[in-house]
């Protein structure tokens, strides 16, 4: 690391910093990179729980067990509370614990939110562009999606082979967070795509430009030549090109609290951290601001330990209330959905398929191919590159029954009964606002409700992009420094089950398309015998994937009277000198995987902060 200082010892730290960033993950390092670049005379300290990993590709596919349970190094591993609505099952969730955060361990699927997500986000957050408010609608965020990644065209040979399409006008960034298409697809990559075309789903050249209802090729966050994972620990730290003596990183420290020494109006707060090596504590002073970027599962823990959160909960956890902010750790969401599978009675002669990786000779060649320059072979594929995004109106003629239920719930007093019992009235008001905006959103034929990604083989992952159930992330009252308690509450709003069923009924049509029938496709799960709503509901509960590793929204950007935690400038309501910049600030999930959103939030936040401090 020739240009950036890695601080491992407390004695190496400066006596104070201009900016302190709690969490060196996807968003946090984006902000650190931009601030140190914009202000060479101001110092920035990032305090990160995990380790710094020098070698690009530390978490790349060749080091992982093929087809295994996925990466574990550099991860927080969670098991949620049992879900009463879903047979008391628990969610298995990972989050990144390394310099680079979850971008070090994610599936590298690099799609973006749709324009309708961001326009709805701005509505929920009560942002009216005509009033001069910071814009988080599509026009306000699209430039930051563009800025946040460097896209490289695939080679002509690869384009001809797989038919990749893209729209150059959706890109244009130069920062070394790479986005590219892999030089490999499994032999059956075209089957699901063709079947979906049979169903009338439109083909979109590139979904990165905001319009993503259709079949899309989705780039991978990987280097265009080496196919190595591109993550923020590289692109916004180790690979930063210019010298940055003002950019310090303290690793293996847990930010425990922010402390307002002279009361809440005395910001910026001190930052208190604990060494994970010897348990010693330290305080660091921020002269300008503190930015919390610890991700959706840990940002609320830092706030709650600091006495910033729902007063009723803080009291039960024996934490003095510094600021009653009911939204901290509320509004917890993740993508979820049941799976489907089928088999073929006349399988195509596809060369090659994932089962070839069970052949040691093929697997060894795959590793050798990946290590070539340029990289080749199956390991360049990460988790796949194709997906459909489908709206409710394009899925079922009955969609208005779902929308009407949402509108009724948003308008009457029942909404609160679907939130945790101790929810503050402001949270209920905010939830009603969300239901109302999401009802408009989901009735829009261009706004996706279902995503099916990674479609090769004989199984589908069905993602409900906009679940209505809301959970909580709270510190463990009996051990504040332990990992937080995740209460997913999946299915606590019963309308979600209507949506899962609509998705299943729609998607099972895939198996009867001419393309699938050419190979003798037959549905295995749910299976031909599972037809009634009751049977499908039972199937859904049995096979539900609770988390597609996109936890979000636990410090939502909404007004305080609607249960929000941050304003459009990412400042925590009522807490001077303190911002949250990470995936926690989303009011609700975007129609996408979330790393691109975390980068875009980081880029936009950095511009807001720079603007505020430019002399
Ligand atoms: C297994 C997995 C697969 C995924 N697959 C995809 C995918 O294919 N495509 C996609 O777009 N998205 C995917 N995601 C989601 C995406 O990567 C995340 O939403 C995004 O990276 C989150 O960014 P963030 O900045 O909010 O948090 P993170 O990047 O997680 O950063 C938070 C950082 O804070 C640190 N931290 C936590 N607590 C403290 C503390 N108290 N003190 C100091 N530091 C702390 C953590 O160690 C971490 O480095 C996946 C996520 C996971 C975990």
UniProtKB/TrEMBL annotation:
Database matches in InterPro entries: FAD/NAD-bd_sf, GMC_OxRdtase, GMC_OxRdtase_N, GMC_OxRtase_C
Biological processes per GO annotation: secondary metabolite biosynthetic process
Residues at the catalytic site: 550 (proton donor), 593 (proton acceptor)
Binding site for FAD: 26-27, 255
Gene Ontology molecular function: flavin adenine dinucleotide binding; oxidoreductase activity, acting on CH-OH group of donors
Domain Glucose-methanol-choline oxidoreductase N-terminal as annotated: residue spans: 295-309
Cofactor names: FAD
Protein name: GMC oxidoreductase-like protein
Origin species: Decorospora gaudefroyi
